[in-house]
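User: Hello, can you help with two protein structures?

Assistant: Certainly.
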Amino acid sequence: MKTILLSVIILLPIGCNASAAEPDTLQGKALFQKNCTSCHAVQTRIVGPALRNVSHRHSEAWLIKFIHSSQSVIKSGDTSALRLFNQFNQTVMPDHPSLGDQDIKNIISYIRSESNNAIAKLPITMAPEDNDPYKGESGFVRQVVYIDLPGTHVPILPNDYRTWFFIAVLIFLSLLTLFTVIKAKTLIVNLKEKHGQKTITGDNLS
């Protein structure tokens, strides 16, 4: 009897830990909606990449480290983190120190579930990884030019000073061109009127 009781006492914490390690998809959905939806969606790109099948592209351990502190992973020289950071115009992903490892596992479980549910619904024309219709193009093209392609396009971010400066220069040049055209037309009209007056004066003298 003592041996059985001792076995139960030893195995009980192991059973509890195994149960706790199981990801909770519903809890993951709630955490995803609270912490992630301002920048991410499963099937479409928003500010950050679409997260469909993200667990196929990165290990669970890598995702946990990246979600906890993306900049720490980037500064470590991780090639995948650097590629994502540069691909998305070096937009800094906020840290999530309040999310525990199990919370992130729950979120990954929800994303995996949504990815599996979405496979049959995806159109043939769906863009490739990260749902980026402008993959390989410059940040300016990807942000400003809107083409009728699948996916959600990225707005110009407030801290993207280079793009804003470029737009300001374009607006200035456009206004300068318009001003020059108007002044040129006014000058032509004045010259025509002056020439016409000289012609009339010459006719009167003759």
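That covers the first. Now for the second protein you mentioned:
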Amino acid sequence: MSQVSIVIPTFNEAASLERTLRQLSLLNPAAKEVIVVDGGSEDETVAIAKQVLESLNQELNVQILFCDRRGRSIQMNYGASSATGDILCFLHADTWIPDDAIAVIQNTLAEPKVACGGFISLMVGSQTTRWGISLHNYLKTYYAPLVFKPHLFFKGLRLLFGDQVMFCRRRDFWDCGGFDEALPIMEDGDLCLRLVQKGRIALVNRIVQSSDRRVARWGSWKATAIYVYIGILWGIGVDANYLKQFYQDIR
């Protein structure tokens, strides 16, 4: 059975990382390794990662890497370059996956015609579930490629994003060039456009939970408007470096 390496890019994730790592220790079957790639956090992220590593060293194989350049694409590529598993799984530090996620990933990629997969993301807060935005994000997986890339949609393109916990074979990832390090956002959608040349993109019928911190800061209507606006402009070819100004870091 293929082994799975989980790569987590971090920057100021002290509020989320401990819970995420402790949940990963419950995976059954276990991941081959968990690679935390920090981009220069200014909070307690690294200290928390080291603390959890010490307490879980018999239950979870965690590596902590330090990347001298910040950016999700850069950090995820850096982590992937150190990974030894046959499958790469890219996990945000504020996203939580089910205990059988490794088996789900392995079973999905056991189908040779599937090149990449992801989960259905449910956006949650401490006292609320963002049903409307979660539904829109689910539908976007299908309607965005159908509207903007119909020829690829019928070849199996589905547009997955970071909070959907993307996974793919390591060899396919590098054959496609990995994440485009020039992209400050939309690096995940861009990778889907290249991976579909290897096979179809699958959305598995399982839930992961992601923090609603961005929506909590912006409000539901503003967040939805920004997501749609960025999505449309990116779909028609606007440079992601220009779009980044509308998607500011909220940590």
